[in-house]
Amino acid sequence: MYSTLLFLHSLGRWAVVGGLVYGIARAYRGWLGNQPFTPLDNTIRHTVATIAHVQLMLGYALYFVSPLLKTFHLRDAEHDPGTLFFGFQHVAAMTVAIVVLTIGAARAKRQPTSTAQFRTMALWFTAALLLILLAIPWPFSPLASRPYFRFPF
What we know:
Elements: H1 2-32, H2 39-65, H3 67-71, H4 74-77, H5 81-109, H6 114-135
């Protein structure tokens, strides 16, 4: 179960990042180009938020079946950056990022004009993407290095 969740979570990372980049590009294009907020834009807004929520739930499931959680103690983790990263920092930062994304998606939906919808989506989604990029364990990260993709075999 752990390796399956790890694989799905690794795959989901790219869906979230790709969806956010695409949503942000459409949002900035619509905002700066003064275009109408179409049903396609609304679908993208909703889909990106949904993918991010699924990824967060996969992450929580992975967290609770992880061998790390069974031995994690915050007082001991200060001496091991990798343990601290996965035991606390990654989970906290990703949760905050998805909350930011959710607020932005909800606020964009309720804006009275297309310009306001695109602006809200662009700014909140950009903030969420920055938080996500900071909290991903990239292969070059000094906090916790992981490969770009995890295979279950």
